[in-house]
Amino acid sequence: MTDTLRLGIAGLGTVGVGVVRIIRQKAPLLEARTGRKIEISAVSARTRDKDRGVALQSYGWEDDPVALATRDDVDVFVELMGGSDGPAKAATEAALNAGKDVVTANKAMLALHGQALAELAESKGCALRYEAAVAGGIPVIKALTEGLAGNEITRVLGVMNGTCNYILTRMQDAGLPYEDVFEEANQLGYLEADPTLDVGGIDAAHKLAILSSIAFGTRVDFDGIEIEGIERVTIDDIRHADDMGYRIKLLGVAQKSGRGLEQRMMPCLVPAGSPLGVLQGGTNMVVIEGHAVEQVVLRGPGAGEGPTASAVIGDVCDIARGLRLPVFGQRAETLQEAPAARSVLPAPYYLRMGLTDKPGALAKVAAVLGEAGVSIDRMRQREHTGDVATVIIVTHKTTRTALDEALTAMAATGVVQELPVALRIEAL
Amino acid sequence: MTDTLRLGIAGLGTVGVGVVRIIRQKAPLLEARTGRKIEISAVSARTRDKDRGVALQSYGWEDDPVALATRDDVDVFVELMGGSDGPAKAATEAALNAGKDVVTANKAMLALHGQALAELAESKGCALRYEAAVAGGIPVIKALTEGLAGNEITRVLGVMNGTCNYILTRMQDAGLPYEDVFEEANQLGYLEADPTLDVGGIDAAHKLAILSSIAFGTRVDFDGIEIEGIERVTIDDIRHADDMGYRIKLLGVAQKSGRGLEQRMMPCLVPAGSPLGVLQGGTNMVVIEGHAVEQVVLRGPGAGEGPTASAVIGDVCDIARGLRLPVFGQRAETLQEAPAARSVLPAPYYLRMGLTDKPGALAKVAAVLGEAGVSIDRMRQREHTGDVATVIIVTHKTTRTALDEALTAMAATGVVQELPVALRIEAL
Predict the structure, then answer these.
(1) Which residue of A80, A89, B265, B306 pairs with A292 in a disulfide if CB–CB is 3.0 to 4.6 A?
(2) Stretch 239-278 of chain B: residues touching chain A, C-beta under 8 Å
(3) Which chain B residue lies closest to A131 (C-alpha atoms)?
(4) What GO molecular function annotations does the UniProt record carry, in alphabetical order (chains A, B) (predicted)?
């Protein structure tokens, strides 16, 4: 181990600047904790001449991140460019092939290419670390991979996209419709360039894919995730849920059932008073359940310069201290291919539908549910709008298959005005 | 690194049995994650012939934990006996002197002898790990030492004694007085043999001393902690606090001020809706605040077979994976001696006092507070009992010094019937 650990940082957006700032401002602290000096050799970004509010003159510059990744004076390549493919992936591969350790915040790259990258890193004896890729400042990768390594993990769930949680809690608190709050979030700069990544659940699903792999010893399987965004959640749904003691969250859940690995990222109802239920604004939360530890809940800022940089530096410190771990907690070639199971595990569901306001309509719906074996826990008929009455039903535990059967049969009755909204109620 | 990591486990109480169970039941999982077999060579406990519900025949037996700690077939000595001195300390020292790694759950030993043990471990190149010593199953030592290593920590606080939190939340929920709930906790077996360790705040203070050391790079200083137990908290205090939107928690707080390291373990008021405020029963919570990460909150079971064993096994897995870290996050000889500062940082306070029910009494109290520079935010006069009226005052931010001055002057007025209860209101 050399005395100094030398970084090459690619990407000088918010997070990159945050990392540079910590390295510059907290050098003595980092040296005390790791026993080594941590320095930046060179950096790379799309434009060189831009005031980023932090002094970069003393570092080398590379226009090409691949050139940065393979410099002789770089021990650790820090990839903060983003994008699942393109330069980020090329430079990460180049770094690993050159025997450099890599720290990245790139959830999309890991969710889509995690297996190949892990195999490459492990074949080269390099570290590939990504604490910043999931839940910002929360050290959840470390908790799952190391702190809870003695557990057979039974479920991982959480709120992993701060923008969606901001939108949902703001709708609830201000009583505003989705479209208004979406626009507000846009104005505040909370949304990705392609907002579908946020509100469509894709970004959060990338994170879930990574957590699932570590938790269950399976290959990262982004395609196996059932994804549903928050676009169809209305202020009425939020109010109905509230009346019944629930909050609506974009919730990621991964658990193993007899049929395979179940990964869902979709709006769900959670108890209002539960740790997830009380989660406000852009904060993230991950709940890890294991056979021994029962339940551990981790909560913290899901994004932002400081928190994300904190996670990147945590990884850098681990590398400086000589920590070497398999990328997903066990060697990549031992990770299993688990078949993707679609909502096999039963749960109660919240249903909202518009019913033709005619005698017998409700009875037809109830009959259809009964025939599919879906039993009703609570039902409320709410306000009428013209000829349509909104009906809210909470079912007893049922499988998604039975529910889908009922929803199809319901459409055939002719009394349901629109595609019912069906949200799972997740137990906590 | 040998293929197999061999443990010697001293102490076969709840936690010891939990550790044996995980090693036996999850062997393939642990091997997949660490790349090594983890086996038990021998065990030790006070009595050999006792049915502990787990098969121990295949392991060696030692009556003397020191003999266990130094066996040739033991790589890691797992100390689960407890007690700050005596056999636990002797065996830990023997293990380190023999070049063995040590995993312990012993908060008292670390709080009182942490510096010497860390120096010994580091001089021998051995690991000394203690995740289970603080907050049971929550991987908080790891989060603080590793995950958040890029942060200058600004404050660590939390609820670290499940029994006290059980008592306080049960008082609140059932409306029962302290004495009744204390007796109930006793019947349920929640209290230590010496209950002062729990309700007197000692056990939680041991844990805080350990967290402070890691957070601030200071030598463990248990004696520098201001400790106050929950024995004087009444059901009335809980109700008054509730009325004002607060909960009372036995709260540990460590932060650095210009005057030194401030460590407090005492009943405090926290906002009812905050993560700490909503914490129920025996659950623990640690809040870590750092210059970059802002705030991370960790929550989980603070005790019990599974959760504590989970923490022990996490440490064992780290050792199996070759992780070597300084015991308190930086080398023991670099840890500073920080002067202990007593509540230097100002805060609002909750005061409860019994006032002689005479004209002018309240004015006298208000005058005394004003003279000491303590200004009143809210004041309520509550129910009379005989000639005594209970008065609740919430002050604006003040130093403990100014407050103590006021309390002394108050006693001299002759209108205050008993020593006022003064509880800090901790901002979150």
Answers:
(1) B306
(2) 273, 275, 278
(3) B147
(4) homoserine dehydrogenase activity; NADP binding
Contact flag A292-B298 (C-beta cutoff 8 Å) = no
Answer whether residue B359 shows pLDDT above 90: no
CB A109 within 8 A of CB A210: no
Q: Please determine, looking at this structure, whether the domain spanning B349-425 carries the CATH number 3.10.150.10.
A: no
Residue closest to B10 by CA, chosen among B95, B68, B60, B73: B68
Query: What is the number of CB-based contacts under 8 A between chain A and chain B?
Result: 187
Cβ of residue B33 closer than 8 Å to a chain A Cβ: yes
Match 């790079």 to its residue by tokens. B217
The conformation of residue B347, written as its DSSP 8-state character, comes to: B
DSSP β-ladder status, A153-159 and A246-257: antiparallel
Q: Which two tokens stand for residue A421?
A: 């909204």
Q: How confident is the model at residue A2 (pLDDT cuts 50, 70, 90)?
A: low
In this structure, are residues A361 and A415 in contact, taking their beta carbons and an 8 Å threshold? yes
CA torsion B191-B192-B198-B202 (nearest 10°) is 180
**Min CA distance, B35 vs chain A (Å)?**
8
pLDDT confidence bin for B132, thresholds 50/70/90:
very high
Chain A residues in contact with B330 (beta carbon < 8 A): 32-33
Using an 8 Å Cβ cutoff, are B228 and B248 in contact? no
ipTM entry = 0.95
Tell me if B181 sits within 8 A of B174, measured CB to CB. yes
Beta strand pairing call for A294-301 and B294-301: antiparallel
In sequence order, the 6+-apart residues with CB closer than 8 A to the CB of A151 are A290, A291, A292, A293, B310
Q: Is B426 annotated as a binding residue?
A: no
- Active-site option among B89, B100, B207, B256: B207
- Within 49-78 of A, beta carbons closer than 8 Å to B belong to none
Cα distances from B94 to residues B16, B64, B78, B107, in angstroms, run 20, 12, 12, 18
CB distance from A195 to chain B under 8 Å? no
Q: Is the pLDDT of residue A73 over 90?
A: yes
Q: Which CATH number fits domain A4-133: 3.40.50.720, 1.10.150.750, 3.40.120.10, 2.40.160.20?
A: 3.40.50.720
Chain A residues whose CB is inside 8 A of the B313 CB are 149-150, 292
Name which of B26, B35, B323 is nearest A152 (Cβ-Cβ): B26
Is B192 annotated as contributing to ligand binding? yes
Asked if B27 is an interface residue toward chain A (Cβ–Cβ < 8 A), one would say no
Over residues A230-250, the pLDDT tens digits come to 999 999 999 999 999 999 999
B35/A contact by beta carbon, under 8 A: yes
- Best probe of the A interface among B296, B297, B299, B428, by most A CBs < 10 A, is B296
Extract the tokens encoding B256: 């650095």
In sequence order, the β-bridge partners of residue A193 are: none
pLDDT over threshold 70, residue B1? no
Pairing of strands B283-290, B294-301: antiparallel
Indicate the residue of B26, B309, B318 with minimum beta-carbon distance to A146. Answer: B318
3-class SS of residue B92 = helix
| CATH superfamily ID and name for A140-301 | Dihydrodipicolinate Reductase; domain 2 (3.30.360.10)
Q: Quick one: residue A235, left, alpha or beta (phi over 0 = left, psi -120 to 50 = alpha)?
A: alpha
Give the B window 306-325 contacts with A, CB below 8 Å: 306-307, 309-314, 316-318, 321-325
Topology (CATH) of B148-302 = Dihydrodipicolinate Reductase; domain 2 (3.30.360)
For A32, which residue in chain B has the nearest alpha carbon? B330
Question: CA–CA separation, A308 vs B197, rounded Å?
Answer: 39
Identify the weakest region by mean pLDDT among A31-40, A412-421, B13-22.
A412-421
The answer to whether the CB of A302 falls within 8 A of the CB of A135 is: yes
